[in-house]
Amino acid sequence: MRPEGTLPLLTRRGQVFDVLIAVSLLLAAISAGDQDMRVERVPHPGPELFVPIEEHSEASVFLGLLLVVAPLVLRRRRPLTVLWIVLATMPWLVDDDAALRVSFYACVIAGYTAAVYSPYRILALASLPVAMLFYSGAEDGAPTVPPGFVPVLILGAIAVAADGLRRWRHRAAVLERDQARALRQAAEHERARIARELHDVVTHNVSVMVIQAGAARKVLDGSPEQAREALLAIESGGRAAMTELRHVMGLLTMDDAGPDADLAPQPGLDRLDALIERVCGSGVPVTLTTSGDPRPMPAGVELAAYRVVQEALTNTVKHAAGASATVLVEFGSDQLRLRITDTGGTSRPAAGGGGHGLIGLRERLAVYGGTLTTGPRLTGGYRVDAAIPLETR
């Protein structure tokens, strides 16, 4: 009883065609019936396509014909309903041979439409034997076809079948192309997501490691202890980078990962302290301030917030040497706000939101309905503001 598909798109050409079918069938029946009634002709042995209309029943027959052909206008919109309407009106037309003959023709058209277009395929196919029983039980209900119309009907059926097969192949080809396009888009989306993850992980950790390596090189001869601390920080940053890289690569090899795979949980707000400690170890002082009431959040939201702070501090390390930074995490009643600011440095300032990292952050936040605002501060330095909606408690 459930639909197995959807109705095809109804075009203006199809609507006009359905109206023409109904009007043509009605006019042909009336015209042929009037001629047979008013013009005395020599009878021929072959049966006629339409039955003559009796003079005393013109009005009732006309109403019967109209009742039969009118539903055909809606045959593409409600194919199964039209077939049932034609069958339901058939018992009221058994006394009018002309209307009953046209009802049979209308049933053929409605039955074909229901079998081809109706999403209720089982009901449509089950209705066809019922229609056969209806008309086979009525006298002169299923008319014989004149010999001159046999080639037309055969060639017409072949043409309809060939056209249906061609349309089916065309729809199958279109569906196959759409599926291939959807697969390509899904693969491209996944590659872009993994690329953003790799960018977030590698850029931050490698930038910190490069700065610490440069500091270690400068103090290696004069202050071995400071150089040793810088090298330990590089080692710690490298381990953190490898752990997060295994995260991202695990997205690609999850099927092959065994139960003992060494994959740490995705970073969240609880790991901001470790992130800021690494940045401070690179020589950039960072102050973390938290306000509001911390609350459980989806892992994806926490990961997005962590990446915002990570990307902002990475840009500070890369483009604002000698600057200090401030991270504000505000837990609101309906949203999580993040503000990362720095005081500026001696290096060239970061581009105003034109990097791939910030673009990736905007896309990441957009998934959760969040926004990202970046730009230089009036007092100097740079700011990154992010807002992520949260479910109200």
From TrEMBL:
GO terms for molecular function: kinase activity. The keyword Coiled coil does not apply. The keyword Membrane applies. It catalyses: ATP + protein L-histidine = ADP + protein N-phospho-L-histidine. The chain crosses the membrane at residues 100-117, 144-162. Residues 190-252 form the Signal transduction histidine kinase subgroup 3 dimerisation and phosphoacceptor domain. Its EC number is 2.7.13.3. Residues 301-391 form the Histidine kinase/HSP90-like ATPase domain. CDD domains: HATPase_UhpB-NarQ-NarX-like. Keywords: ATP-binding, Kinase, Membrane, Nucleotide-binding, Phosphoprotein, Transferase, Transmembrane, Transmembrane helix, Two-component regulatory system. Pfam families: HATPase_c, HisKA_3. Signal peptide: none annotated. This is histidine kinase.
